[in-house]
Amino acid sequence: MKSSSKRSSAQKTDIHDVAAHAGVSIATVSRTLNHVPTVDAALAARVWKAVAELDYLPNTQARALVSGKSRLLGLIVSEITNPFFPELIQEFERIAVDQGYEILIGSTSHDPKKMDTCVRRMLERKVDGVAIMTFGFEEIVLDRLIADEIPLVFIDVASKHPRSGVLSVNYREGIQEGVQHLAALGHRKIGFISGPLHLRSAQARKSAFLESMQSAAVPINPKWIVEGDHTLEGGRDAMQTILSQKALPTAVMCSNDMTAIGVQHAVFEARLRIPEDLSLIGFDNIHMAEYTIPPLTTVQMSCKDLAQKAVRILLSHLSPEGGKGEIEITIGTRLIVRQTTGQPRN
């Protein structure tokens, strides 16, 4: 009953009540709610205390009309069903909210039409900036965002947009550690299951694997290099293709963890064991990777790093003193050794 009464009272509360309760002007309340950095810290603290005590819910649409800022950041991801992206979304939202922003999420499933719909939604809601974390996109649908000079962040793709940033993932760093780890265990027969090769990130991971194999002087067998689609089913199917060969690898690296978990299922169906019959390495280090049986050795690409640095770039371009020009930040990768790798049987 108390919470219901409190909510009813909150609905009648307006900015005048907050100002009176805090003992400040309406302008100070407005500037505080809009996160204007020049507001005196003591006055801002009184405003936020009054907001909490009155359970005041600001009208964000009205604030956007007055300030010209929506305090809304867009986040476009490619595949919401892949656990990597919910983990990324959760971290992105946490950091954005800490900075006084809400987020608007769109998922494309690598479909240009869905990407176009996402971009339209972002424009309709007048987002202040957009992080495009799809690991591949159709540039043409972004023309409207660029035309409106909305700050943008991309993964792996440089843009000519003057208010943009790129998160450049060092795929080779972690993948080379993975190949060297397998080679040190004695593996000379190593396969690779890529992601869909129309994606730049999948191409980059495959190239990093091939370069790392050459650097480690490990022979490459093209029959063990199979294209997958970054899904559980794709990993299972790709591994079944490899298992149909007369000669089999003793280890397989995968372009993401979902693929690797699908490989685990195919190996189980074939009545083989990991790592006794096949060593396995994934990529991403999703939370689930620690709880597979056995726990998955994988290359970590930190969701936390991606989210933190994407928000940092957007806020840099949105700050009053923020200049124009593309910002580039490198995201490192590293091998996390668990229990799916071991010495080859022979």
Automatic annotation (TrEMBL):
HTH lacI-type domain: residues covered: 15-67
Superkingdom to which the source organism belongs: Bacteria
Keywords: DNA-binding, Transcription, Transcription regulation
Family matches, as SUPFAM superfamilies: lambda repressor-like DNA-binding domains (SSF47413), Periplasmic binding protein-like I (SSF53822)
Species the sequence originates in: Granulicella tundricola (strain ATCC BAA-1859 / DSM 23138 / MP5ACTX9)
GO molecular function: DNA-binding transcription factor activity; transcription cis-regulatory region binding
Segments forming a coiled coil: none
Name listed for the protein in its UniProt record: Transcriptional regulator, LacI family
Kinase listed as a keyword: no
Record lineage: Bacteria, Pseudomonadati, Acidobacteriota, Terriglobia, Terriglobales
CDD domains: HTH_LacI, PBP1_LacI_sugar_binding-like
